[in-house]
Hints:
Blueprint: H1 2-19, E1 30-37, H2 39-48, E2 52-59, E3 63-68, E4 74-80, H3 85-89, E5 95-96, E6 111-114, H4 116-123, E7 133-136, E8 139-146, E9 160-162, E10 182-188, H5 194-211, E11 227-228, H6 229-234, H7 238-269, H8 271-279, H9 284-319, H10 335-360, H11 365-372, H12 381-387, H13 389-404
Parallel strand pairs: 4-9, 6-8
Antiparallel strand pairs: 1-10, 1-11, 2-10, 3-4, 3-7, 5-8, 6-9, 7-8
Helix pairs in contact: 1-7, 1-9, 1-10, 7-10, 7-13, 8-11, 9-10, 12-13
Amino acid sequence: xxxxxxxxxxxxxxxxxxxxxxxxxxxxxxxxxxxxxxxxxxxxxxxxxxxxxxxxxxxxxxxxxxxxxxxxxxxxxxxxxxxxxxxxxxxxxxxxxxxxxxxxxxxxxxxxxxxxxxxxxxxxxxxxxxxxxxxxxxxxxxxxxxxxxxxxxxxxxxxxxxxxxxxxxxxxxxxxxxxxxxxxxxxxxxxxxxxxxxxxxxxxxxxxxxxxxxxxxxxxxxxxxxxxxxxxxxxxxxxxxxxxxxxxxxxxxxxxxxxxxxxxxxxxxxxxxxxxxxxxxxxxxxxxxxxxxxxxxxxxxxxxxxxxxxxxxxxxxxxxxxxxxxxxxxxxxxxxxxxxxxxxxxxxxxxxxxxxxxxxxxxxxxxxxxxxxxxxxxxxxxxxxxxxxxxxxxxxxxxxxxxxx
Length: 405
């Protein structure tokens, strides 16, 4: 149960974070153009754009905004994005509308969109929330929309989205125009390959470096490449998650070897039973099938316990706030995860049942039926431990444990 539960939990995370497509329209066409661009550079990229149907920007980091005037004050995570960000992603709000282009201009009315989780947690899913005013960071803002459940862009666990990314509050107003505070993203034009967009970016980089010598984001020695937005989103956790998945896989193998050792001991104590079955006509294949059926049944019970453990673990993972895991809101038990757990249960049942089945299906009929209870061997106990099935299982457990440690 622990082995299957741990693997199902980690597979759920890997599946949601690394394997599933982003919940955008044609997500493979959404790309990160560059990180660390100045507002001046972004304006120049807007004018020179040839590879994208549309490009936008977001501030390179989140900012804290205190929600007040509604119940007790609460600190929220806010993202500053360009007004067209939902249009680029191909996502529609759950309630209300998206930002308008004029709301991205300095001096425009203050507006905000909120997450479905905040809408439920703070506003109790009030259907009339659109159009109401809330005080964010000491400034009244009209709430114009609610984003779909599980939506995460550009950071995980974002509560609020506001416009004008170049006004990121972490940087002083005087230094903002020449500071690399923006990440630029866009949607590739139909039929255009990402390599073509990267070639265009290289030309724009050279032009910008020549025109703005000494600018903070001019890095001629470090050429950038356009990359799918999903790759950028999970870049910091990809290797760690795959390594964790491999580690829990080794844990499951250790569990299987341990269980196989116990089943082998149990099968040895039943050697007389198997000898009698063989003496009255049971073939070896039939004895193996019976033992495998017993081990698969045992694994099924463990699988049921493991699924329950995984469901509890995934619920806990979604509530953990100090782990910055991208796409955390998409981690849940779905049909793919359940299918993985069921397949894992069957496979482990066969895996830890095969060695005991093969060992027990060849009893020494004469020795066992004479009453010795177990087949004799010319080799001593040390040789049987080192070179027999039990020795193989012990060596396997020790080897896997050393790798894990």
